[in-house]
Amino acid sequence: MSNLDRQATLSVCGGRGFVVAEPVRELLTPRHVRLGESTEVRRLLPNLGRRMIGAWAFVDHYGPDDIADEPGMQVPPHPHMGLQTVSWLHEGEVLHRDSLGSLRTVHPRELGLMTSGRAISHSEESPKSHARFLHGAQLWVALPEAHRHVEPDFQHHAGLPTVTAPGLTATVILGELDGAASPGTTYTPIVGIDLALATGTETRLPLDPDFEYAVLSMSGEAHVDGVPVLPGSMLYLGCGRGELPLRADSDAGLMLLGGEPFAEEIVMWWNFIGRTEEEIVQARDDWEKSSRFGEVHGYHGARLPAPQLPTTPLKPRGRVR
Ligand code: MN
Q1: Which one of 35, 216, 240, 241 is most buried, by most CB atoms within 10 A?
Q2: How many whole angstroms separate alpha carbon 319 and alpha carbon 321?
Q3: Looking at residue 320, what is its pLDDT?
Q4: Å from CA of 78 to ligand 1 middle
Q5: In the predicted model, what is the mean pLDDT of the chain?
């Protein structure tokens, strides 16, 4: 389905959601969140006015952190349901273990893609011997109703396809760009692109008018559709765009996230995405009883206990507040 009427202001984009088909420039600033004792992340999604971009439902940007004399990332075993996790690094490495028995080290610009489906648990840690700097993003993709109970899966893809232009290297993390497709499994029309821009580059990226998009800045000084976006911030772009102007005043690292607007309402709590409060409560109980989510072997330390449920009801919510 495509939207050919570029003047329309009351039509929809994609086949899934009712979204005004009009490009916007909405700067999303991060919420600073402490994870554990030493790590602070910048949370871009969910944000005050916006919960999702396509099926992207969670975006944390962290680092670059100097972890030369520190253990670095130490995330004990914890469960997931109803989503995929994407680990994306610009510096450092992350050792992934999960209840399927996966044991993989993910390096910069390699895709660590975990599909929780109905249930999985995993841990993430900096290896004992690690690079000095850790810099990356942790993202979640919501699974649609038809696929949210699939069997759990973990994929590690090095050597992802790239698209190049003068001063630009675009690495296709999920979905496709200009005919280059990621091998990562997806369940909704979605795209994730890493953009490395050299100083002085001015370029235009082809976009799908049916997708909504946002650009996360990870490093450097870049202008996205004329708007300066500082590292740790994200510019929401709406949909109805055929291309996106980019300019780099220094070497810059960006992530383009997009997809068909996600039409379903979801309940997102802790590490779970469901559709009802009952499902979330059940998942929490199952984790606390050590059932359903399997076991992570080899992590030195205790698993993460589930937090207390909120006293207010967990209600299904849409992509915007
Ligand atoms: Mn996780």
Answers
A1: 216
A2: 7
A3: 85
A4: 6
A5: 93
Determine, yes or no, domain membership for 170.
yes
- Domain membership of residue 140 as a residue range: 21-259
Ligand 1 center to 129 CA (angstroms):
22
- 308 within a domain of the structure (yes/no): no
119 lies in some domain: yes
Cα 292 to ligand 1 centroid, rounded to whole Å: 16
What is the 3-class SS of 9-68, one letter each residue? CCCCCCCCCCCCCCEEEEEECCEEEEECCCEEEEEEECCCCECCECCEEEEEEEEEEECC
Query: Which pLDDT tens digit goes with each residue over 79-133?
Result: 999 999 999 999 999 999 999 999 999 999 999 999 999 999 999 999 999 999 9
Q: Quote the number of domains for the chain.
A: 1
Output the CA 139–ligand 1 centroid distance in Å.
9
pLDDT tens per residue, range 147-193: 999 999 999 999 999 999 999 999 999 999 999 999 999 999 999 99
CATH number at residue 43: 2.60.120.10
